[in-house]
Design a protein that fits this description.
Number of helices: 9
Strand content: 5-15%
Number of domains: 3
Low-confidence stretches: 313-327
Largest sheet: 2 strands, antiparallel
Structural class: mainly alpha
Distance between the termini: 124 Å
Strand order of the largest sheet: 1-2
Helix content: 40-55%
Radius of gyration: 39 Å
Length: about 325
C-alpha cells in the first residue's frame, strides 16, 4: 500500500498512522463475530404445581353429545376433536396442524413398533438360551431326581419359533411355587369329586360330562410332570378306593387347597374365576340345552346331582345315536 510519510507527523494517542487504519467501507472482521455456543436446554423432571394443574385440567372429564349419544371424555380429547373438526370444515391452519400431528404420530408409532419388535427378538433369544441352560441342569441329575433349582422345567418352557413368542407352564421360579401348589390341591379335590360323581352313576351314564370335570382347567396350568390328564392311568389306584375313602380324600384335598390358598395370599374365587369357568363350560352346556353354568348348577342341586342330560332335546342325535327323549 502506497502512503505519504508526511501523514505520520501527527502520530500519537488515538492517532495511529493512517496506513494502519481500517479502510473505509471494509469490515475488519469479514467473517463476523462467532456465535457464542449455548448449553442445550435441560428439561426438568421434577414435579411442580403447574404440572399437577395442567395434568388435572387435561384429564378433566367433559360431557359431550355426539352421534353415539351423551358421554364424558377428557378435556385433552375434546380439544383434539375440536381441532380435527375445524380441519374437516376447511380451516387451513388446523389442517396443517392436524396433518403435522398425524405424521409425527405415524413416526412415533413406527419407532415404537420397531423397538417392540427388537425387544421381542431379544427376549425370545434370551428364552432360547435360558432353555438350553435348563436342559443342561436337568441332564446332570439322575433319573427321578430334580436339580436344586428345578423351576422351570425345560418341557414347560413353551417356545414358538415362528411367532417368536414364549410362555412358562407352571412356576416361573420358587416364588411362584405356593400358587401352583394350591392349584394342584384344587385339581386333586375336584378330580376326587369327579370320581365320586361317576362312581355314583349307572353304567349308562358314567361317560356323561360332569360339572366336576372343571379339574381340567386347573390341570392344564400345572407343570407337565404334575398333570393328570396326560397319564390318567397313574390315578388308577384311586378308582379302586371305596366311596368312603374317596370322600375322605376329597375333603382332605379341599382342606389342603383352602390352607394353601390362605398361606399363598390368594383371594377366594370370585366373579373372575366363575366367569372363566363359565366360558369353558358354556359351549358344552349349550349343546345340552343349558344356557349357562349357573343354570346347570341350579339343576344339579335341585336334582341331587342328577340333572336332565340333555335338558331338552327334540328328535336328534346324542353321542352318535338317534334319540327322541326330552327333559
Amino acid at each position: 500500500m502506497a502512503f505519504d510519510e508526511s501523514d505520520d507527523d501527527e502520530v500519537g494517542y488515538c492517532k495511529p498512522p493512517k496506513w494502519t487504519r481500517f479502510t473505509s467501507g471494509k469490515s475488519g472482521n469479514p467473517k463476523g463475530r462467532p456465535r457464542k455456543p449455548r448449553a442445550p436446554r435441560s428439561v426438568s423432571t421434577a414435579e411442580s404445581l403447574t404440572d399437577d394443574i395442567l395434568r388435572g385440567e387435561l384429564g378433566r372429564p367433559i360431557r359431550v353429545t355426539d352421534s353415539t349419544g351423551t358421554h364424558e371424555i377428557a378435556t385433552h380429547q375434546v380439544v383434539q376433536r375440536s381441532q380435527i373438526q375445524s380441519a374437516v370444515k376447511g380451516n387451513s391452519f388446523a389442517q396443517r396442524e392436524v396433518l403435522k400431528a398425524a405424521r409425527e404420530l405415524e413416526a412415533r408409532d413406527a419407532a415404537r413398533r420397531q423397538a417392540e419388535e427388537e425387544q421381542k427378538r431379544q427376549d425370545f433369544a434370551s428364552m432360547v438360551a435360558w432353555r438350553k441352560l435348563r436342559v443342561r441342569a436337568w441332564a446332570k441329575v439322575e433319573k427321578g431326581c430334580e436339580p436344586a433349582d428345578p423351576w422351570p422345567h425345560p418341557e414347560d418352557m413353551i417356545l414358538d419359533h415362528n411367532k417368536q413368542t414364549w410362555r412358562i407352564r407352571g412356576p416361573f421360579d420358587a416364588e411362584d411355587l405356593p400358587h401352583f401348589e394350591y392349584c394342584r390341591a384344587e385339581r386333586d379335590s375336584l378330580f376326587a369329586r369327579a370320581m365320586i360323581d361317576r362312581r355314583a352313576r349307572s353304567v349308562d351314564d358314567i361317560a356323561k360330562p360332569s360339572i366336576w370335570d372343571l379339574w381340567i382347567i386347573w390341570d392344564v396350568t400345572l407343570p407337565l410332570r404334575w398333570q393328570a390328564a396326560p397319564d390318567i392311568e397313574k390315578w388308577h389306584d384311586l378308582f379302586c378306593l371305596s366311596m368312603r375313602a374317596l370322600r375322605r380324600l376329597e375333603q382332605e384335598r379341599a382342606a389342603d387347597a383352602k390352607a394353601l390358598r390362605v398361606s399363598a395370599g390368594i383371594p377366594a374365587p370370585g366373579k373372575d374365576g366363575y366367569r372363566l369357568a363359565n366360558a369353558v363350560m358354556k359351549p358344552l352346556l349349550q349343546r345340552q340345552g343349558y344356557r349357562s353354568l349357573a343354570e346347570f348348577e341350579r339343576a344339579y342341586e335341585a336334582t341331587g346331582g342328577d340333572p336332565p342330560w340333555p335338558k331338552a332335546l327334540s328328535v336328534g342325535v346324542i353321542d352318535g345315536s338317534p334319540s327322541t327323549t326330552s327333559a
